[in-house]
From TrEMBL:
Domain Histidine kinase residue range list: 41-258
Species for this entry: Pontiella sulfatireligans
Entire protein: shown range: 333 to 598 of 598
Compartmental location: Cell membrane
UniProt-recorded name of the protein: histidine kinase
Residue ranges the record marks as coiled coil: none
Amino acid sequence: ILASGRVLLNDDGHSIGALIVLRDVTQLRHLETVRSDFVANVSHELKTPITSIKGFVETLLSDEWNHQPDILRFLEIINQQSSRLNAIIDDLLTLSRLEQKEGRVMKEDSQLAGVLENAIYLCQLQASKKNICIELTCPDDLTLSINAPLLEQALVNLIINSIKYSDPDKKVMLFAEKQKELAVIYVKDEGFGIERKHLDRLFERFYRVDTARSRKLGGTGLGLSIVKHIIQAHDGSIRVESQVGEGSTFIISLPLNPPPKTNEKK
Ligand code: ADP
C-alpha cells in the first residue's frame, strides 16, 4: 500500500485537518512483476539458440578450425536452433495477436465434430511416428459459435502435447459432450502425467515442468498459454487433471450460447 498525506490549511494558515491517501497497488505491482518476468524470459529464450548459432558459426569461420567431418553436424545444429528461434517468434506473435483482440475474435456457427476431426488430422503424422492412436467421440449435432481455425489450433496444441509427453504405443482420446449450457471437450492421454504442484502454473508463458525435456521435444513453452488465450476469447475456460505415471486430461468448457458482447453493434 502506498500512503501519502498532507495537512489542510485554511486561508489564515491554520491547520483544519489532514488528508491521507492510501492506494492499494498490489494489482499494479503484480502486473509489473509479470511484465518484467516475461521480458526477462523472452530475452533468455531467444538468447539461448542465438548463442548456440553464433558459437557454431564462429567455429566454422575460425582459421584454426579445419575439422571437415564436423561441418555437417554443426550445420544441422545451426539449422535446428534457427527453427527453434522461428517457432518461439511465431508463438510470441500468435500470443500478442490474441492479446490484442481478446474477446473480439470472429465467430461462426460450426459443427464441433468437424473441428475436432481436422485437429486430429493435423496431428496424425506426429502420432504415427510414436504409434499413438487418437480416438474421437463427439455427437454430430453439437454446433457452436466459434472461430474454427483458432479452436483447431488450441486442440492441435493439446493433442501434440499429449503425443510429446507420452511413451510410444499409447492412446490419446478426444471426447466432447453437451452439459447444460456448455460444450465440454476432454483431451485425455496416458502419458507421463504432471505433478500436482505444477498444475496451477501450467498455463503461464514459458512455464515448463522440465525445461530440458520440453526444449528437446521442440517445445517453446508457449503452447498452453496460447490455448488459454484462445479459450478465453471464446468466453470459455480450461482446466487440467493429472496423475503422475497415469496421464493427463485437459478439459475445455465453451458456452453454447455465448453472452452478447457490449461493444458489438446491435
Ligand atoms: P511446451 O512447448 O514446453 O510443451 P506448453 O505450454 O505446451 O509448452 O506446456 C507447458 C508444460 O506443461 C510442458 O513443458 C510440459 O512440462 C507440461 N505439459 C503440457 N501438456 C502435457 C501433457 N499432456 N502431459 C504431460 N505434461 C504436459
